[in-house]
Amino acid sequence: MTTLSRSLVIRLLAILLLALSAATPLAAESEQQEREMFKLGAKLWPVYCAQCHNARPGSEFSPAQWNVIMMHMRTQANLPANDARAMTEYLKHSH
Length: 95
Prior knowledge:
- By secondary structure, this protein is mostly helical.
- Helices cover 78% and strands 0% of the residues.
- The chain contains 3 helices and no strands.
- The protein is elongated.
């Protein structure tokens, strides 16, 4: 390996290590946001869904099915986007 290619490999590894170390706090922040969305969804789910019908348990449908159902129900019930996201997060992860 030439000196130039060795130098290039070392620089690329340094960039990769910096990128990975920078991504770790973002992952922790993202996990915290997901937990907060889950908690909010757990509170909103019975409030919104029980107004018109029996609220379904999260285990009744798969996560992919909940995505479709919540998209439909968001338009039917005129749900705010953030509330719909929170309830979807809750329902998808409450199996």
